[in-house]
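User: My collaborator sent over this chain with a note saying "see what the structure looks like." That's all I know about it. Can you take a look?
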Amino acid sequence: MAKKINEIDWLKLLKVDKDVFFNWFTLNEEEIISEEVKIKFYSLKCKDNKPDIDGFIKHLYGEVEKYVFDEEDIKELTEDGYIPTEKALSYFGDIDPLTDGRYGELMLYLFVEAALQTPMVVHKIAQTYNNNDQIKGSDGLFIGNINNKATILIGESKMRNNFNVCVSDVMDSLKRYINNSGAIDRELEVAKKHLSRDLNNLDENDLDLIYQSLRTKQEGFKEYSICYPAFLMYQEGKIDKIINGDLIEVENQVLKLIRSVKNRRSQYVKQSLPDISDITLEFFMMPVQNVSSFREMCYQVFHNGKKFKREEKE
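Assistant: Without extra context I'll predict from the sequence alone. Here is the result:
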């Protein structure tokens, strides 16, 4: 039985296999801006001399069930005759993939659990009543130990074709919480009502300890550090030239490109940061050939091969 939050065995709640997840990437490197700010860059491995986007999206598809539902949900759905994966996919509604934020939220979950080893504690997407609705608030709430310190992580995700716009949008979202105790209070107030039943795998006293610690006016909350993880997918223009240039060893060429620009990209993020104190930020950067195409492919895979049909403008 834990007496403090950092004594809880958070690792037993993780659903993402970090070795399997990171095996999709040929690049997994970190730029340390300061003790408080770290920026990690990722690049997909290639298949047939092209980044294996199709394979990676199919991997995302396979992770949807655990992302949407807790263990009890899956058990109950199976007992009621449903196929949990099909039910989970129904939460990715008939929304234009160019504006749908759910694919980014799914990847945020995968990166945070795999890289930071902190489990997601609220299945946000399963709280929607209409499958085309999108809940306001953060894009993911996680709790765990980072450097042996109990930490609450309030995450955001953005997928934009333009790097500068991607950074600007994620900073705008993070600023809602940074140095804003009221916003954190509201986030945790909602979270308390929707905690994952996976937490029932912990000791009963641990559960009560967690619940009480999410009350920001109580002593238990003071045990936490606050971390803001953010997933950013953006278009790195020269990747397209490499892929379409009939070059040999595309994977190595893309790797070389990202390594050549990641310091400059990191400095731009640093210059865009708001004033921070007593918090940490973790950025997961995934440059791709074309974000819009990635989004369209996500929709197609998640909807059994169907392409999103847009109404033609008159």
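A starting point for your reply to your collaborator: Confidence is low (pLDDT under 50) at residues 129-134.
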